[in-house]
Design brief:
It is a single chain. The chain has eleven helices and 16 strands. It is α+β, with helices and mostly antiparallel strands. A five-stranded antiparallel sheet has the order 14-13-12-15-16. A four-stranded mixed sheet has the order 3-2-1-7. The protein has a four-stranded antiparallel sheet with strand order 8-11-9-10, with helices on one face. β12 and β13 form a beta hairpin. The longest helix has 17 residues.
Length: 352
């Protein structure tokens, strides 16, 4: 009988997407077959404490964050694993593979991936470069421009404070038309994103976005279908069918994504021509490869109303895995159960 793989599943984190991660990890853990994997749950509290978590029930009821056992991932390659501190002693747990279920800053931006690289332990998902680039919207635009794939026109403001706001407003009014969307360059789940219909709203939106990141961008509004494509692979990369987001809110903000029962997703929507859906799938794979993607990603696009042109929006290297998240839904529709998807992601981690 084959030895079980010892898996460290890390969730929580200090980003604004902490709660989403806690929902995602419940689904991910359900995909690990007991006969194949020995799962160790590591939760990162909102304050940044790393804790060993006894079981998934404590994640469901939220009591895990009151745990006392500190778990530290060792960067020492001679002993690749976890140091777990219990009162006056510590234990060493050898780890075969790490599965990060972390969204947003410090989980999806290359920082924790750097720690995984130091440890030498195989891990699920993209590496430091891809994670850092795709978490930062301005950097992603630079990479994707090389491919000639259309993106929304934008104005960047990278000043540390609000000193440049008047210049930014002037540039926006010269280059773009209202309404526009204002986004922090580096924040997840649409946090700090808002729509501006005039100069006063634009200034308010810039102030809000700057609370999340000093680097912000103001984008033209693209009217059309919001679509997403799931990508899976290491040496060989595959794309799922296309899914369409039907948001409850005016745009797919954090609340619409996770707190509204009105938001829906449709897989392989009839309203989008087959050649356009194929273009989305091809572009998703091309972008994934261009930014050195690895393992999994969800790539988001618009299909512009009237022209059916495909417009790239953003890429998520550790997409949500909640029971309403598009990524697992798209692969489930392609015939991959959650258990098979988890198996494949672990297999790909070892391809490194």
């Amino acid at each position: 009988m084959a030895m079980k793989k010892k898996v460290a599943v890390i969730f929580g984190g200090i980003s604004s997407e902490h709660e989403v991660s806690c929902l995602s990890v419940i689904n991910v853990v359900s995909g690990f077959r007991e006969e194949k994997y020995d799962v160790i749950l590591i939760g990162i509290t909102k304050e940044g404490a790393w804790l060993q978590v006894d079981g998934i029930q404590s994640v469901r009821d939220g009591s895990w964050s009151e745990g006392k056992n500190i778990a530290i991932l060792s960067p020492d390659r001679r002993r690749p694993g976890l140091l777990i501190f219990r009162e006056h002693a510590y234990e060493y747990e050898k780890i075969d593979v790490i599965v990060p279920v972390l969204h947003g800053r410090f989980g999806e931006d290359g920082t924790v991936q750097g720690l995984f690289e130091l440890s030498g332990i195989p891990y699920v998902g993209s590496g430091v470069l891809c994670s850092a680039v795709t978490m930062d919207k301005l950097s992603t635009k630079v990479f994707v421009e090389r491919l000639g794939i259309r993106q929304a026109n934008y104005v960047a403001d990278t000043a540390r404070g609000l000193d440049r706001m008047e210049t930014t407003v002037q540039e926006v009014e010269e280059k773009l038309e209202y309404p526009v969307f204002v986004k922090p360059s580096n924040a997840g789940s649409s946090c700090g994103v808002s729509k501006a219909n005039n100069r006063e709203e634009l200034k308010r939106a810039i102030r809000l976005a700057k609370e999340y990141d000093s680097r912000i961008l103001v984008e033209e509004m693209i009217v059309g279908h919001e679509v997403e494509c799931a990508v899976l692979g290491g040496d060989e990369v595959k794309a799922s069918k296309v899914g369409e987001v039907l948001a409850a809110a005016e745009f797919y903000d954090y609340d619409a994504k996770y707190n509204s029962e009105e938001s829906r997703t449709v897989i392989d929507p009839e309203g989008i021509p087959a050649p356009v859906k194929e273009e989305v799938r091809e572009d998703a794979v091309a972008i994934f490869k261009e930014v050195s993607g690895f393992g999994l990603s969800r790539v988001d696009f618009f299909v512009e109303k009237g022209t059916n042109e495909v417009v790239f929006n953003e890429m998520n290297t550790l997409p949500g895995f909640t029971d309403i998240s598009m990524y697992p839904m798209l692969w489930n529709d392609m015939g991959l159960s959650t258990e098979e998807l988890v198996d494949r992601l672990v297999e790909i981690a070892f391809e490194r």
